[in-house]
Amino acid sequence: MKKHLTVQNITKMALMAALLCMAAYISIPIGSVPITLQTLIINLTALILAPFESFFAVLVYILLGLVGLPVFAGGTAGPGKLFGPTGGYILAFLISAPIISILKESLLKFFEKISKSNNKKIMRITCYILSTVIGMIIMYAIGTVYMKYMLDQTLMETLAVAVIPFIGLDLIKCILATIIALILEKALKR
């Protein structure tokens, strides 16, 4: 069954790409990897869009930054940023967003089959949070390996700079993305 993109779907993809661009401006530099709201928006994008749609929204964002629009963390842009030490995290967005989207649907179907509970809201919250946490692990893995080789550091040095300081905040972002996605899903159904 072939799914066609509707004006509504294209609009949602464009809005998510725009939100991702804006989230990069909310940046707190704490070393070589700044704190931004990008991971929150990546998670939200994956939760409210289909896999292809989330991939495409992130691809648009990356291409905008690649051609020079200042949409990467802290208002930076260009190939130097994308292929610099933190570029692996940006590229990981492209992989993790569709995976989160696929996971959320797969986990929902799985839990519906095995669950005897009728509480679909708790099941949905659990699936969304679990999907985004797995997505964060994917982002960390790709970004960390990329940074490790770009900076010629040990794995522990890279983890200490690029992962460990962010774990708690990123878990909060996973929960926030879930809450926002559930609210938006309800609003979009009207």
Structure notes:
The protein is mainly α and 190 residues long. The protein has a single domain (7-189), classed as Arp2/3 complex 21 kDa subunit ARPC3. It has eight helices and two strands. β1 (27-28) and β2 (35-36) form a beta hairpin. The radius of gyration is 17 Å and the shape is globular. The mean pLDDT is 92.
Instruction: Indicate the CATH architecture.
Output: Orthogonal Bundle
Which structural category do the helix and sheet elements fall into?
mainly alpha
Sequence stretches where pLDDT stays below 50 over 5 or more residues = none
Please bin the fraction of helical residues.
over 70%
Work out the number of β strands: 2
How would you write the strand order of the largest sheet?
1-2
* Rg calculated over all Cα atoms: 17 Å
Describe the main β-sheet briefly.
Answer: 2 strands, antiparallel
Write down the overall mean pLDDT: 92
- Beta percentage is under 5%
Please identify the top-level CATH class.
Mainly Alpha
Q: In angstroms, what separates the terminal alpha carbons?
A: 25 Å
How many domains is the backbone divided into? 1
Q: How is the CATH topology named?
A: Arp2/3 complex 21 kDa subunit ARPC3
Helix-strand topology string? HEEHHHHHHH
How many helices? The count is 8
